[in-house]
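Risk mitigation, structural track. In case the binding assays with cobalamin fail to produce interpretable data, a predicted complex structure has been prepared as a fallback.
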Amino acid sequence: MLTKIITAYNEAVFDTDRDQALEIIHQAVAEGITPEDIVFKVVIPAMELMIKSISEDFDANLAQHFMASQIASQVTDEMVAKFQTSPHVVGTVILGTSHGDMHTLGKRIVSGCLRSLMIEVVDLGVNIPAEQFVEAALTHNASVIAISSMMMHTARSELGCLKVREILKNKNLEDKIKIVVGGAPYRWDPHLYQAVQADAWAEDGITAGKVIKELIMEMQK
Ligand code: B12
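Fallback model:
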């Protein structure tokens, strides 16, 4: 039965048919599939399949990528609330766009992808001052600050990632909190993340999930 559900759900996600995807999931739960199986055997593999298939022409498939991550995020939120035992949350990430940057779309996709990988996301929104990123990381005991910048000047700004690094350094927090960046400028220049003193970067939402998960695991060793 699970194979049939996986096939039907994958088709709905590829068609970006949110209603159909949710109906398949709700019916599966009614037929006795556990919410744990829905998340780990249906939703997460579907996201992985999706990114493999669209990565060849990322820009042309942008809307599909966005919708798939929103569906995954919605289903995951709904299913996690039904888990018998609390799932093992991989870790917590503070997410926001850099100072001066109002572009929300990339960040929303990243948030959906992280949540579907059981990473808790505290989304601070847009135009976030460096101090707020660090304060939130301390408040939520987060090990990663994830900064989205869609413009070259907000990526390179002294008030953005560079400032977050300076604060972490001054507060002796560099071992406890890592910085991950992403957004169009980092795709234009893959070395930019080093220039702005981030620990890592990722070119899309799914890669962001992988990179951040590995970073958190590494820090937990
Ligand atoms: C849509 C858009 C807007 C919308 C934003 C709407 C919204 N709510 O987000 C509006 C119209 C408001 C807008 C405004 C402006 N924009 Co604009 N905008 C765009 C546009 C067309 C698409 C950006 C986008 O949403 N992409 C879709 C997302 C999903 O793709 P993505 O960014 O690559 O995201 C993926 C990865 O980057 C990664 N990722 C993203 N964030 C993160 C974070 C982390 C931590 C990780 C790991 C990964 C990651 O994962 C994402 C999902 O897979 C781009 C052009 C372009 N092709 O990029 C210009 C663009 C970014 N804008 C630009 C400019 C200049 C502006 C304005 C200054 C225009 C103006 N004169 O007013 C203002 C600035 C507003 C501000 N202060 O932020 C320029 C920047 C140029 C530059 N060299 O820096 C661009 C490149 C257009 C251009 N070619 O000139 N914009």
